[in-house]
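Follow-up to my post from last week.
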Amino acid sequence: MPIRTVMKANEAAAWAAKLAKPKVIAAFPITPSTLVPEKISEFVANGELDAEFIKVESEHSAISAVVGASAAGVRTFTATASQGLALMHEVLFIAAGMRLPIVMAIGNRSLSAPINIWNDWQDSISQRDTGWIQFYAENNQEALDLILLAYKVAEDERVLLPAMVGFDAFILTHTVEPVEIPDQEVVDEFLGEYEPKHAYLDPKRPITQGTLAFPAHYMEAKYLVWDAMEKARKVIDEAFAEFEKRFGRKYQKIEEYKTDDAEIIFVTMGSLAGTLKDWVDKKREEGYKVGAAKMTVYRPFPVEEIRALAKKAKVLGFIEKDISIGLYGAVFIDASAALVNESERPLMLDFIAGLGGRDVTFGQLDDALRIAEEALEKGEVEKPIHWIGLRKELL
Amino acid sequence: AESPFKADIERAQKELTEKMTPGAIAYIPGSSVINKTGSWRVFKPEFHKDKCVRCFLCYIYCPEPAIYLDEEGYPVFDYDYCKGCGICANECPTKAIEMVREVK
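User reply:
Got it. Predicted complex:
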């Protein structure tokens, strides 16, 4: 029987890692993710998890150590956040380019400067071009489940790409919620033993990994990484379906909420989806035709799902905790690209919110709604990007 | 003396015509031999057999290795891979190896 208990998302991530039975874990402590490797080291020390726990001197070394272990042919795990993930940046490309199905938990935290330990998604959003699959969890149960799903998708022969699972700093990492720990046997059946066909070391089969590719070969290697990420779309759907069958919890790349007759739909990710759905309930009672959508998968970008969602809305608003300085929020930019060749598109708005841990309140969502309604009334968008919840008195 | 890499070069050249693998893994060991690094050379080791005492130091120190020994134990320089680092000339106790500017 699955155990129903209460825990923080960091603990849920550690439990997910334990259930997946990685052979090597390397990690370096960083707020708000420290508890993940701390808990795992406890599992290893207690003999509950048979794995090598490598203590390293930086996040760059942590990811490098798991790249080495994964290239040797075992299942691996690590966790980090913010500056730590930024320090891993160059090695993230290497993990993807070497097609190593590493899984990493991210306690989504802002980037310096100014230094700030609280939640936004800038750390992992900024890794969107590295070739890592990206999942975002709404709650602690999703943090656990999505890590198991990350292994399932990453290790699929059609994919073979690393995957990261993001969950919001403090809002989830340090908040205790009810979580169901699945049975080990069911997880074992779901994931199976990790048996790499390409990336493993065996003296009887000498190979070179991490090769040099001249201009005559580099593009093809990169194309295969891009192509694998394209193929991941279908594999993710299959994995979600199998997960639901085995564990009874349903996941979708984009989960819609009260969208069927909605004129205005807001899209978000992570824990903000909970706030948004609550707010939609309230606005529905007040007579507004609003809906919500939660993006669980950010890479590969859910192009088809965004197109289907766009068909339902007259105004599509993105509420995101990240900003691509020099343009708009990354989710809005990507969604715009997904819709660019559609003959009919909704009016589109981008709302930058909650950076550096600022609470996203109903009042701020009301502001976004007012801007969306104004666009709907006028039939055009004058300004696509709005920062909501800004303290104008400080500017 | 024939390059000991001849068979590797032939196998690796065959691999080059095969498909790109996931992770750009090279499945044939020794495939780096098809990259003729001798073209990087600025100075070339010139061998003076009359001074050579067959101590093998050049053969031992060559980091490539681009020096192998003929049947009599004299060094043979593989200019396909010798990058002209000059370590052999530096180590040679009888100055039997002289670095001369490469002329192309």
